[in-house]
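Before going further, learn to read the protein records used in this course. A complete example follows; check for yourself that the lines match position by position.
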Amino acid sequence: MRKFEIIELLAKEKRVEKHVCNISHCSLNDELRDLCQLVYSILLDYDDASIVRMWEKGQLDFFMTRIIMNQYRSTSSPFYITFRKFRLKCVSISEYREEPQQ
């Protein structure tokens, strides 16, 4: 099986989403969906032979879990910097009150 076929199978079975829900202890929201997409992107960018080898040895789930945990828990990860930090600093429109101009 080739790398793209493996990742397609993972996506059809929603394995990354299941791992993300287990690690975050909550159901998928927009932030966690972004994390899932980032994990798929990391897997697609990873070396073809390594992905195939991990799949054949049954180690790919552990590898995905480590990626998810590193991205989800680290404050220096691309996921934190790109998504979480942005959302933490955002103010929703309902919370924002503009002072009336005089």
Summary: The chain has one domain: 3-87. Residues 7 and 13 are 10 Å apart (CA to CA).
